[in-house]
Design brief:
5-stranded mixed sheet; alpha+beta; elongated; 328 residues
Amino acid sequence: MFEIRTRRQVYRMAAVITLFAVLIPVLTFALPFAFFGKAYFGFFAIAVFPAALIPLFLAPPIAIIILQMFRRQTLTIDKVDEYIRYDALTGVLTRTYLLGKSREQLAAGGGAFLMIDADHFKAINDTHGHDVGDEALKKLAEVLRKALTTEALIGRLGGEEFGVLLPGANQARAAMAAEAVCSLMRSEAGTIAGHEIGLTVSIGCAVHIPGQTLERIMKRADAALYQAKRTGRDRVCVAEAEVSVQEPEAVVADTAGKPARGGDRNNRRLTRQRPQPVAEQADQQNHLGQERQAEAAAALPARRVLLDEVPGMQCPADGEDQPEPVRR
């Protein structure tokens, strides 16, 4: 793409254009002179000067005007692109651009997503003013750039909440990176704009699972962030990995009572089955309970249970009226 951003580029390009504008007519008149020799010299001497002077005077201003238009167009595109890509306050990626690049990275090689939220940020705005709150957000973005690698995609999701994608990171690497952010915040965000604030962050982390969408990963990271907030803030919580994504499966133990191979009864075989609807599961459990009750009733011999045999109960003597059993 043809791009011009500086005035120096404009003048250089104008000089090149002027040179070609002068050389082309001069060479056009000089080429016959090479064939006809001195017989053509008089005509060449008359025609060559206007052919060189006209583009020499006309080409530079026209070239500069056109090139300046290209320059302004390029600078306008850069401003629009910067507005779309970068947050105006903090300089990190915008939410839209961050999510778009994160989807590309997850499709290419996975990674981990961090949800980062400034602790007690509303209290900072209410106590010190929104200008100090803006400085706190700038400090948070600065700490994120320092603590994380250059490959990390850092963006502002909204308000005091930031998102970070760590391409190709596993759970251990993601947890270490999050802990590094928390530690650096404690050491560098104590004083902001001359105010003793002691800004800290809470972080929720979720590792990408193949087949899982970015929205699902962010939801898991957000749940981990909520857990970090609820358990005291200024800490990192990692979301548990899920069993499956595209087709959820439940892990159930083989309860047949047979020991597994090798004689260890505790080492029971694990099987995976797809979850059934709740109504169907309830019907099966009721049916199974009825069958077990019927089997138990058939297996036990019929026997009369005397009240004397029941602890805490009394039975009257023969011939007496037998009132209702009374507990002692």
